[in-house]
Write a structure and sequence with these properties.
With 76 residues, this protein is mostly helical. 61% of the residues lie in helices and 8% in strands.
Length: 76
């Protein structure tokens, strides 16, 4: 199985147009709205969280601070 397919299965998003909750896909299953940016942001967030966990485990304070700042920026 491809790594992107695995990430997409782990990410659940809510369509900003019709509010349908679904697995990450390029288009909404209900209203067909373009969700590609939401999927990309979700994948980026998941990857950053994994790297943050690794940085905390390794005791890398610089990487930890950088990743926490990135996640705050990404999620507003």
């Amino acid at each position: 199985m491809h790594a992107d397919a695995t990430l997409a299965e782990e990410i659940s998003i809510q369509c900003p147009v019709c509010r349908a909750t679904q697995a990450a896909q390029k288009a909404c299953r209900r209203c067909n709205a373009d969700l590609e940016l939401f999927v990309h942001a979700g994948k980026s967030s998941l990857a950053a969280r994994r790297r943050l966990t690794e940085a905390i485990t390794a005791g890398d304070a610089v990487a930890e601070a950088r990743l926490r700042d990135y996640l705050r920026w990404l999620h507003g």
